[in-house]
Prior knowledge:
By secondary structure, the protein is α+β, with helices and mostly antiparallel strands. The protein is 28% helix and 28% strand. The strands form three sheets. The protein has a five-stranded antiparallel beta sheet with strand order 2-1-4-3-5, with no helix packed on it. A five-stranded antiparallel beta sheet has the order 9-10-11-12-13, with no helix packed on it. It has a three-stranded mixed beta sheet with strand order 6-7-8, with helices on both faces. The radius of gyration is 28 Å and the shape is elongated. Residues 264-269, 271-284 and 286-291 have low confidence and may be disordered.
Amino acid sequence: MQIDVVGLRFKPAGKIVQYASNGLLLSRGEKCVAESDNGLEMATVVLTPRAVALSDEARALKPVLRKATHQDFTQAEAISQRATEAFTLCRGRIRELHLPMKLVSVDFTLDGQKAIFYFTSVERVDFRSLVRSLAGVLRVRIEMRQVGARDEAKTLGGHGVCGQPLCCATFLTEFAPISVRMAKEQGMALNPSRISGVCGRLKCCLAYEMDVYQAIRDELPALGDVYVTEEGPGRVVELTIVGEAFAVELEESGKRVFVRLPSAEARSNNCRTCGNHGDTPGHGDEHEDED
């Protein structure tokens, strides 16, 4: 037994959620209507229907209700206008009530029965009076949902210092853990303005090349290791990860020479001692520092 499964996305750069295609012939990029965790919503087909083995997990998938109709598109446009008005209303009420929160966006379900207000705040917010006020005007079910700084940037969009649209708003579906260690490993200056994105958090792109940097660093000797060059032994005083090279200061003359990452065989044949890398530092192409 098999079931046809389709991948839907409810928001740009949002997570892809699996649904049962319900016998519908759906094309990539086509709009359809399905029940999300928030309620009835319009979604975009990103993965066309494919047959998968029938299992308990597949049986639990929600079905796509229908292809989006002209009426659905008209309703979505009306809902969008209503969300804009609700945003203005809520922001005004927040100011009136002096609540320590920043409104990010407002979403309505396609049937107009529920409104979700997304906000950021650095502290706990008692928004009960705000909810009562909004419900009295909008006459719908109100849900307040606190999000983080990265979620705010993903929702609002914008451009990074690279000049490109924000990764989180274009293709990142999840936020990977980012640490200052990643910036250190890549030799970046630990200047907050250089390693932070528009959200104020560490840039997501710090993780993109991290695996490559770690792989190269594992092949290089550690700072302070003793390394035998053609001109004699010396200690490793500088690493250049991008160039896959390192600088050795010769013991006798104090001259500094640069060595490019050699092969594993050369590393094995030319090592004298090495700290964290055992007996694996190598001997490669060398050239004298012009400075």
